[in-house]
Amino acid sequence: LPGNGRNCAICGNSTTEETNWYDKWGIKCLTCQKAIDKRKIPGSIAKTDENRYSPYDMQSRFGLKTPTLRSWVKKGILNARIIYADSGRPHYYLYLIKDNKDFLPPKKLTEPQMVKEEKDGKTWHRMEPWYKFVDPHKHLAGYKIMDYLKVVEKTE
Length: 156
Description:
It is built from four helices and nine strands. The chain has helices at 30-37, 55-62, 66-75, 136-139; strands at residues 6-7, 14-15, 20-23, 26-29, 52-53, 81-84, 90-96, 113-119, 122-128. A three-stranded antiparallel β-sheet has the order 5-7-6. Strands 1-2 form a two-stranded antiparallel sheet. A two-stranded antiparallel sheet has the order 3-4. The N and C termini lie far apart (51 Å).
């Protein structure tokens, strides 16, 4: 695809004219495109992120950091689709909901919510995580991720 300054629809990395691919699924870096070509990941995941969790999603929605995620993958607790670079090193980890049906909830259940706040006579809006509005154990009942998460009460 001509032009620079584009981002891969899968891993989010910046691409140049020489390092991107564009087709019916959208713009992708060549590494992610190779993973699609080799059928390691479905091309359709480039169209929407509703069918997958990224490492960023796992951090922002559940407070899970990369070492924990990789440990879970190694132990077989969580299934990841690992996209490898030409060097053989991992380029990107994806957690498809269909690969983790009983473990990961649909993303709509973990969407942050907008909160309105009046401060100094002005109205401010900010996003707050889903778990501030519901009981996480009830909200995600039936999803095994809750067996591995610890709900921590905020102290002020």
